[in-house]
Amino acid sequence: MSLRDWLPDSDMVELLDQPQAQSDIELLLNGHLLIANRVPMRDPQNSFIGMVSSFRRKDEITSLTQQLSQIKAHSEALRVQTHEHANQLNTIAGLIQLGQGEKALQFIGQANDQFQELIHFLIEAVDDSVIAGCILGKFHRAHELGLSLHIDPDSSLHQLPEHCGSEQIVTIVANLLDNAFEATRRSESPSPINLSMTDLGHDIIIEVEDFAGGIQNSLQANIYQQGVTSKSQEGHGIGLYLVKETVQILRGNVEFSSDQNGTRFTVYLPKQLK
Questions:
Q1: Tens digit of each residue's pLDDT (9 = 90 or more) over 53-78
Q2: CA distances (Å), origin 174, targets 110, 136, 184
Q3: Which residues have CB under 8 Å from 174's CB, separation 6+?
Q4: Nearest by Cα to 67 from 220, 242, 255
Q5: Exposed, middle or buried: residue 1 (CB in 10 Å: 0-12, 13-18, 19+)?
Q6: Ramachandran region of residue 245, left (φ > 0), alpha (ψ -120 to 50) or beta?
Q7: Of the ranges 101-105, 156-160, 268-272, which one carries the lowest mean pLDDT score?
Q8: What's the predicted TM-score (pTM) here?
């Protein structure tokens, strides 16, 4: 059998004709995303005698990135909640010092009712506690930034399929929301960010929508590439790249629509792999 028979999706045959070193290239072989390195082999006379190629699964690398993202999401949620509670305590203390004990009690009741309402909704709508915790943290983060996160009351996300981990959903939801938060903060008149999720039908569908003026036309074609961003600071342009990579691993699809009003990202994740 020829090399082409063993690796029908590989370009190694072409490399044998035109040998050159390659580092950390992405390949899709037999349905698996791989990172490959290729090095030409030469004899003492510098004649080409073959290629050495090493492979490692890309989902192992992405999994480590996702775990780090999950840890960051949890720590950020705790930080935001602490900050939010500190603000509320300061407000209560101020009302008491002003002799407004009745208003302080009303404020405590309102804050507690809002929190409990959100907690009750997440318990009913989202079975996985890690995903629910991520959404709760992002809700508080939006409030801290002076933004509003609206969660579709008809949202539901119950049992995840076997091939889909909670950390992967967290990567998708957290990065899409962070992207919407950043866009909305830069807009002249911040509007609510919408989040909806459903597991009805054959796919898990996650949708995040903002009304922040849309993505620049010059960026849209390469929006999922690592490092592509409308922000001038370093360290950006990673979130949508991670979303795309995670969706690919789960054999799903992500698409977006953007105009002068805003942007909507929609993720489709199959419940069953074909």
A1: 887 776 666 666 656 655 666 666 66
A2: 27, 11, 15
A3: 69, 73, 134, 138
A4: 242
A5: exposed
A6: alpha
A7: 101-105
A8: 0.64
